[in-house]
UniProtKB/TrEMBL annotation:
Record membrane topology: Multi-pass membrane protein
InterPro entries in alphabetical order: Ammonium/urea_transptr (IPR029020), Ammonium_transpt (IPR001905), Ammonium_transpt_CS (IPR018047), NH4_transpt_AmtB-like_dom (IPR024041)
Pfam families registered for this protein in UniProt: Ammonium_transp
Residue ranges constituting the Ammonium transporter AmtB-like domain according to the UniProt record: 21-418
Cell compartments where the protein resides: Cell membrane; Membrane
Keyword Ribosomal protein: no
Record's keyword terms, sorted: Ammonia transport, Membrane, Transmembrane, Transmembrane helix, Transport
Native organism: Streptomyces sp. 900129855
Stored PROSITE patterns: AMMONIUM_TRANSP
Family that this chain belongs to: Belongs to the ammonia transporter channel (TC 1.A.11.2) family.
Transmembrane intervals: 20-40, 52-72, 104-126, 138-159, 179-198, 210-227, 239-261, 268-285, 291-314, 326-346, 366-391
Full protein name: Ammonium transporter
Chief location category: membrane
UniProt-annotated stretches for the region Disordered: 422-445
Amino acid sequence: MAAAITLAAEAPKLSSANTGFMLICSALVLIMTPGLAFFYGGMVRVKSTLNMLMMSFISIGIVTILWVLYGFSLAFGTHNGLIGWNSDWFGLSNIGLTELWDGYTIPIFVFMIFQMMFAVITPALISGAIADRVKFSAWALFVALWLTVVYVPVAHWVWGADGWAFKLGVIDFAGGTAVHINAGAGALGVILVIGKRVGFKKDPMRPHSLPLVMLGAGLLWFGWFGFNAGSWLGNDDGVGALMFVNTQVATAAAMLAWLAYEKIRHGAFTTLGAASGAVAGLVAITPSGGAVSPLGAIAVGAIAGVACAAAVGLKYKFGYDDSLDVVGVHMVGGIIGSLLIGFFATGKGQSTATGVFYGDHSFTQLWKQFAGVGAVLAYSLIASAVLAFLLDKTIGMRVTEDEEVAGIDQAEHAETAYDFSGAGGGAARTAVPAGVGADSKKVDA
């Protein structure tokens, strides 16, 4: 009887503090998707602005419904190491209001909605790679299929209680593999199928609104604190606070490192470089921030800032048209952040696992990170390419060349982002110096 009383006393109870904290974090993660829409919307030319906004916003609608119907059950139900299932979670039909997420002090509903926001933004990240040229209807169908075939299984591998990567010990605090490598590799798979924009490497394709880019980056940075710190699912032991600190530190370091690289390589500190560097740091610290110290976070951010700044030029060398550098920032940044855990993990954060620089001379954790990174990258790349190929051969993925040249906003949405008719027509725009812009700043890379 005494043992039973002790066990009952140790059972988790619903914490109003942690529940409220996680609901706030969920809202912060949601605001990242409109932030991403502004970030991408400012980076494209005027004629594609609305399409970029809509490609993110439609993800909110589609993923929300599918996550409720079956996504959450497949991703986080217990079934096997590759995919999950829980019939009680189908349509969220049999979940008690105060029923707790196993081992935690928050309701299942709270965990579900927090993870929904991750699922929403991940396919939206892909949209930046295929700007200017994809049918909106094809994109909407791709989001639904990609969530089901790619995101849900990978999320189960990495975060599911019986996921193979989770059981192996792969560390991914908040989505370096499941979100960023997954989206970046998926983007690469799609663009290899659908091809380049009309005028790629010939026509200037500079951002039409750098203030909009900076606004989007600011919203992403703000929301990312919920994305990262909230992934500890509570605020009881200081690990979430460590992640919050490391998120800020790594992002600042990456921004500075990107700007330094840009100044040395291209001769200017650009606003686009500052925004892109910040995002690179956010991406890299996402998997690693709970395992490294603040000094380690500086190293993670600085390495990611330089590496991602260098990586965005690879599209010109290899000839793939990654419109807004999703591969260079999210895939490369996710890989770097995930692998650096194997070097900088202190063993004093989210787990006792250590990296090479903290005594793991057998490279145990590093090899685990390689396994997770390699599996997610390969699966997402291949599966995403197959989905894009099937859609392209059936309903067609691309708008016509004439529609692309004239502007996808008018062709797909019958609208334009800006109406200059009441201001005396389209006034001449100030010329952008050569070497500054989303594409032109990297043409010599």
